[in-house]
Amino acid sequence: MTSSPQRPRAKPAAASAQPLLHPRNRHQGRYDLVRLVAVNPALRAHLIRTPAGTDSIDFSKPVAVRELNRALLASDYGIQHWDIPDGYLCPPVPGRVDYLHGLADLLAADNNGVIPRGPGVRALDIGVGANCIYPLLGQAEYGWRFLGSDIDADVLQAANANVQANGLGERIALRLQPARGNLFAGLLQADERFELTLCNPPFHASAKEAAQGSQRKLRNLGGTQARASKAPALNFGGQANELWCTGGEASFLRRMIRESVDIQQQVLWFSSLVAKSEHLADIRKQLGKVGAAEVREVAMAQGNKQSRFVAWSFHSATARKVWLQQAQA
């Protein structure tokens, strides 16, 4: 296990300084495209020249982002096989791994500043998706074990192809959530315990709203790729369950908070990304209602995109320390 300085706890209100990628994130600054093309020659076909005279890729094209991800996963994380079916969410690696680094800091704060590493730490990814990105990155960076859940059997089949192709069946398990309206309910066995849960929830309320959001992203790129010399702030593609749900992000998170109460003794820290800052006030209110013992809000940023995750625990600081000591014994 390795100690690391902790990122300061985020303030509930907007901070004065713009948050940056986590200090442990491998993807600071511009991508080394020469190195990445050497790892994945298929990326070469997607290189473009920006108005500033630098090489980049067209981040508005999912196929280009997919080839970039393949190069990053192979070169930096030892993931030699990664694929997703056409039309599924193609997440930018730097932003996804940033969430994991923030969660590692959360555990370290309860572990005398030392990040718990290895299979003694188990994480539950709600809505793992065909890309299976969080389990793949989390086991590579920290050696954690993962259980990924989804309501779509086809999605789990695609995710499992990535797991098996990389020989990670002992580190990453996948499970179907049989009730489409549930998140935690009916998913876990009574004796299962998790140090972390994580989630990238669908944040649109309808298919129409999701389509409008994608169009805004494309317009923001403006066709010039002037901002593409930095790590990508956006991702494109996605199926209905990945992009929208009834009531959108706010409704999804209220349901997650309600269901977390029933399995509070099985989970040390619950967490979720929160795309829209205007939802934070309601999240705080709901967590107060259910009696969460600790709530953390951690700011993140990738390029011009501002994001954050919220984490909550029903266990006291002392109880969390004991839990982690037992998990690593």
From TrEMBL:
Pfam family, one: Methyltransf_10
Catalysis performed (reactions): adenosine(1618) in 23S rRNA + S-adenosyl-L-methionine = N(6)-methyladenosine(1618) in 23S rRNA + S-adenosyl-L-homocysteine + H(+)
Coiled-coil regions listed in the entry: none
Keywords of this entry: Cytoplasm, Methyltransferase, rRNA processing, S-adenosyl-L-methionine, Transferase
Enzyme superclass (EC): transferase
InterPro entries linked to this entry: METTL16/RlmF, rRNA_lsu_MeTfrase_F, SAM-dependent_MTases_sf
Keyword field contains rRNA processing: yes
Location(s) in or outside the cell: Cytoplasm
Gene Ontology MF term list: 23S rRNA (adenine(1618)-N(6))-methyltransferase activity
CDD domains reported in the protein's UniProt record: AdoMet_MTases
One GO biological process term: rRNA base methylation
Region (Disordered): 1-24
Main localization category: cytoplasm
Enzyme Commission code: 2.1.1.181
A Gene Ontology cellular-component term: cytoplasm
Function, as annotated: Specifically methylates the adenine in position 1618 of 23S rRNA.
Family, per entry: Belongs to the methyltransferase superfamily. METTL16/RlmF family.
Protein name: Ribosomal RNA large subunit methyltransferase F
